[in-house]
Amino acid sequence: xGEGGGEGYINLLMNTFINxxxxxxxxxxxxxxxxxxxxxxxxxxxPTSVTLEDNKIERFVTGKDIGAGVRVIFGEKTAYAxxxxxxxxxxxELAGIVNQAVNPVRGFASNGVKGNKKNFLFDLRKKNPKxxxxxxxxxxxxxxxxxxxxxIKANSVARAMDKRVRQVIATYGDRIQHIWIANSExxxxxxxxxxxxxxxxxxxxxxxxxxxxxxxxxxxxxFEIFDSSPIEKVAEIATRRAIMMLEAARAPGGLxxxxxxxxxxxxxxxxxxxxxxxxxxxxxxxxxxxSKLGETIASPMITxxxxxxxxxxxxxxxxxxxGIESEKTILVEKGILKNxxxxxxxxxxxxxxxxxxxxxxxxQKRPIPRMTNTLIEPGTTEPSEILKSVDxxxxxxxxxxxxxxxxxxxxxxxxxxxxxxxxxxxxxPVRGATLTGNGPKILMMIDMLGNDSGFSIGxxxxxxxxxxxxxxxxxxxxxxxxxxxKV
Length: 487
Fold this sequence. Notes:
Layout: H1 5-20, H2 23-30, E1 37-53, E2 56-62, E3 65-74, E4 77-83, H3 88-101, E5 121-126, H4 144-161, E6 165-183, E7 185-206, E8 209-219, H5 225-228, H6 231-247, E9 249-250, E10 254-260, H7 267-274, H8 279-283, E11 304-307, E12 328-333, E13 336-337, H9 344-350, E14 358-359, E15 368-369, E16 373-376, H10 383-388, E17 392-404, E18 410-422, E19 425-431, E20 434-438, H11 439-445, E21 448-449, E22 454-462, E23 465-473, E24 476-484
Parallel strand pairs: 5-7, 9-19, 10-17, 16-23
Antiparallel strand pairs: 1-2, 1-3, 1-6, 3-4, 6-7, 7-8, 10-24, 11-12, 11-16, 12-13, 14-15, 17-18, 18-19, 18-20, 20-24, 21-24, 22-23
Helix pairs in contact: 2-3, 4-6
C-alpha cells in the first residue's frame, strides 16, 4: 500500500496485535441485547503540521493518536462508544456500553427479543481492495528540515514578488492514517491513507486597500505532490491574486451572464447540490432535493458524480470508514436525479445499499454520509468558445467561500478572482464580486459546458466533523445570474 519504511514496521506490529484480538467476541458482545448491525473501528493516525507566519516558523507539531470505537445499529438508531485504549478488555467494555442502548424492555431492539436471532457472521474474512494508490515519497521518509523548507520557500517567493506584500502564512501538513474495520457481516477491512497538503495565504496592502490571495495543493499523495505542484508555483499564484486584487476595480452589480472557469474549482457544485444529495439531509427533509429521485433537477447536459476511486485525489480511499469499497456513484445523469450518497444507516432506512460515503473524522466520531470527490462531468464545448459567446458579463477564475441553505437551495459565494467579459474576451479584473442564486434553478439554466475539468481541494465540515474532499467542474456558462458588487 505504499507504506514508508518505518511506518511499514509499525503497521506490521499493529496488524499482529489486532490479529490477536478476538474481534468476533467483541461483536457478539455488542449484539448481546439485539440489533441489526455492529462494527469495530480501529485507527492509528500520525499527523505533522508546520506553520510559518511573520517570517518565522511558528509551529512544528507532530504526534500519534490511537483509538477504537464500537457501534451498534438498531432500527433507525445508532449507539457508539470509543476509547483511546486498544485492548480486548477495553473493546469489550465499549461493546457492553453500546449493547445497553439496545434494550428490548425499552422497545429499542429491532428484532424484538433479547439475544439476536439474525444471521450474523462472526467468522471474519479479510476483504481485499479493488484499487490501490501509489505513494512515491512517503512523508515519514522525509526529514523535518525538508518539510520546513516547503513553508520557508513559499514565504521567500511571495515576499520577493512585490513590496506591497504585508503578510504571508504558509502551512505544510501530512497525515498517515491506518484503519481496521470488523463487522457483523463477517468482514475485516484494512485501509492505509497518506495525505499531504500545503497552503499559501498572502495579504497585500496599498494605502487603505487590503486584499488577500490563497492557493492550496494536496491530495491522497506523498511528498511527490511538490514535483507536479511546486510550492514556488503555489506561492506565486496566491501572491499574484492578492496583488491583482489591489489594482482591480469594484465589481459591477446586477443581473448578467456568468462564465465559471474550470480553474475556479468545484465549490459551487459542492455547496449548491452536493450537500443536498447526502442521504441524511434528504431523509430529514432538510434538502431541496428530498423525495425527488427520478425527477429532472438540472439541465440535460449535467451529470454529477461522486467518485472516491480517483487516483491520488484528496477525497479518495480504498474503503470508506464503514468498510464499504470505494466507487463511482452517479448522482445526477443528464439532469435526472438518480441517487443519494448513503452510509450504512441511511441505506438501511431507505432499503438501499451503501454507496461508500460513510465517513468520519476519527475514531472519536460516528460515520455519517459525506462527499468524497464530487464533480460535474465535462461536456463537449471548447472553453474558448464559451467565453466568446458572452458579449458582456463576469468571468470567474477562482471561487471563494460560500453559504448555502440546503432546505431551499439558496446560496451566495464570494469570487476570489474575477474579470469582466468584454466582447467575448477576458477584460479588466474586478474585486468584491459575489454570486447569488438558487442551486436547482442555476443547474437548470446552465446552457454551455466545457470539455475541460478543474479540481479544488478542501476539508468539508459537517456535524462537527471535518473530512478531506475534492470538487471539480468544467468551464460552464450561466446565461443570467445575480452578481453582487458596486451598483
